[in-house]
Amino acid sequence: MITGIKKVTAAVLAAVMLMCTISLTGCGGSDSSSAKEGQYNRIAATSVATCEILDKLEVDGVVGVPHTDSYELPERYKGATELGGAMSPDMEILASLEPDIVLTPNSLEGYLKEQYDNAGIESYFLDLKSVEGMYNSITELGKMLNKEDKADELVAEYEKIISGIKKKNEGKEAPDVLILMGLPGSYVVATESSYVGNLVKLAGGNNVYGDGDGQDFLNVNPEDMLVKDPDIILRTSHAMPEQVMEMFDREFKDDDIWSHFRAVEENQVYDLDNEYFGMSATFRYKEALEKLEPILFQ
């Protein structure tokens, strides 16, 4: 059991989940209990990340997509009906499209599953909490949508990339890493159970808070972080990255405790682009791992 750590409060966790759904959305995974393999001709997708996966699988027949001001939807789905925000798709519009299935990130299963059931809409919840989870969902979708060959191609590419990284880092000492996920006005520690933590693990880093006993994010005071003595501190955000990074700069300048961190003394503090290091798995994980390598192994 991790000591000296307070699990994320309900308010902070709610904020984290909101940040998650503002953009690519998604952290978790499960599936529909009544999959009619190959019979999904009308599909609704409630997150951009889900649309990107369907596009990679070359799936047509997507009739509903999320509204987004921050990301580009695949050209294939530009003519689909907008369902509203990822966190709160318009159930009336969704039902009017008469989809055979709605695809949603697992992070919202507890919130949306009952609504889908009440509307009589079959649902499948993708695991976008980790790169591995994303590819497990791709395999399942390949079976459901008669795209197994394409799914197998994507999985083979992923396995080749991960194998190459492991081989390249073999014998290297893993640096101890502290990951801070910024929210407007606050921040939490990201563990291996989060997507950004998963990326750091895949790249060969050792998270000083491990898997957080299954918690993606933890509330931890700087005094406890100091005891962990990380070699490297990574700072990222989701929404409003400029504001969040300014907040981090003020925090590190105004709170004297940060000056005592060895990573700060040795200039081993790095800000990560939230486009690659956000809350949910995307195909940009390849670029993310490439960006992490020179940071972790200098």
TrEMBL record:
PROSITE patterns: FE_B12_PBP (PS50983), PROKAR_LIPOPROTEIN (PS51257). Keywords: Cell membrane, Heme, Iron, Lipoprotein, Membrane, Metal-binding, Palmitate, Signal, Transport. It comes from the Bacteria. Residues 1-25 form the signal peptide. Residues 42-298 form the Fe/B12 periplasmic-binding domain. Pfam families: Peripla_BP_2 (PF01497). InterPro entries: ABC_Transporter_SBP (IPR050902), ABC_transptr_haem-bd_IsdE (IPR019957), ABC_transptr_periplasmic_BD (IPR002491). The keyword Nucleotide-binding does not apply. Its cofactor is heme b. Belongs to the bacterial solute-binding protein 8 family. NCBIfam families: IsdE. PANTHER family: HIGH-AFFINITY HEME UPTAKE SYSTEM PROTEIN ISDE (PTHR30535:SF36), VITAMIN B12-BINDING PROTEIN (PTHR30535). This is High-affinity heme uptake system protein IsdE. It comes from Gallibacter intestinalis.
